[in-house]
């Protein structure tokens, strides 16, 4: 397996684990992951800027975070209970290596949204096109995905469901702590996700 395929396998495994933590029988619930994709696309467009009647500057950092969120939903759509993670990862890597590009980022994003609405599918090639046009690599995706997924796990483990979770620690939101923790680690390390979790745990108020 290539390095990218291995990373995609890790992300698929993490996605299944997260979905199972939220709902043990998630696979049989018929959750509308495709709807989550097009709604996120619309939210992302606001961060990127589309209003011709006012000056807008793309918030690239936020756009990348939204793409990471969409990838969570895309992976959930692809897990079918039949194909192995290795098969799914190989297919995804091929699609991500053949980006589908429209004239600009906004139009490529609309292709991603259109597939979600019309076909209830995850268009990985349009997703790759968005990544390319915003200057995001597979490593950026992996770093962002593993970080956000681990934070979601951390939140669940620390009272997110019952409302006891503390979102602001020492004057910073948990997302900001996450960015600092991830930057201090080696993404190629086999235990990257565990190290992220440990880094969050060390900072979380006891």
Characterization of the model:
The protein is an all-alpha fold and 206 residues long. Strands 1-2 form a two-stranded antiparallel ribbon. It is built from nine helices and two strands. The termini are far apart. It has a domain at 3-141: all-alpha NTP pyrophosphatase fold (Orthogonal Bundle), CATH 1.10.4010. Strand 1 (168-169) and strand 2 (172-173) form a beta hairpin. It comes from Pseudoalteromonas phenolica. This is dUTP diphosphatase.
What share of residues are in beta strands?
under 5%
Estimate the helix proportion, in percent.
55-70%
The residue ranges in which pLDDT falls below 50 over 5 or more consecutive positions are none
Instruction: Name the average pLDDT.
Output: 91
The major beta sheet can be summarized as: 2 strands, antiparallel
CATH architecture classification of the domain at 3-141: Orthogonal Bundle
Please tally the β strands and state the result.
2
What value does the Rg take, in angstroms? 17 Å
Report the span from N to C terminus. 41 Å
Q: SSE order, as H and E?
A: HHHHHHHEEHH
* Protein structure class: mainly alpha
- Based on Cα principal axes, name the global outline: globular
Regarding CATH, which class of the domain at 3-141? Mainly Alpha
CATH topology label of the domain at 3-141:
all-alpha NTP pyrophosphatase fold
- The DSSP helix count reads 9
Widest beta sheet: strand line-up: 1-2
At the fourth level of CATH, the homologous superfamily of the domain at 3-141 is: Type II deoxyuridine triphosphatase
């Amino acid at each position: 397996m290539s390095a990218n395929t291995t990373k995609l396998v890790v992300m698929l495994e993490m996605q299944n684990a997260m979905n199972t933590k939220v709902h043990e029988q998630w696979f049989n619930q018929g959750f509308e992951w495709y709807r989550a994709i097009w709604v996120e696309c619309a939210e992302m467009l606001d961060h990127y800027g589309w209003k011709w009647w006012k000056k807008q500057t793309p918030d690239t950092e936020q756009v990348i975070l939204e793409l990471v969120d969409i990838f969570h939903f895309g992976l959930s759509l692809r897990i079918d209970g039949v194909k192995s993670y290795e098969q799914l990862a190989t297919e995804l890597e091929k699609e991500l290596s053949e980006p589908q590009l429209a004239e600009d980022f906004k139009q490529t994003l609309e292709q991603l949204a259109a597939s979600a609405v019309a076909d209830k599918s995850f268009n990985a090639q349009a997703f790759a096109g968005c990544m390319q046009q915003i200057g995001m690599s597979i490593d950026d995706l992996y770093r962002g995905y593993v970080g956000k997924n681990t934070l979601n796990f951390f939140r669940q483990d620390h009272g997110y469901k019952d409302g006891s979770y503390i979102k602001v620690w020492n004057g910073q939101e948990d997302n900001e702590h996450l960015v600092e923790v991830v930057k201090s680690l080696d993404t190629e390390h086999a235990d990257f996700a565990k190290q992220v979790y440990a880094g969050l745990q060390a900072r979380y108020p006891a």
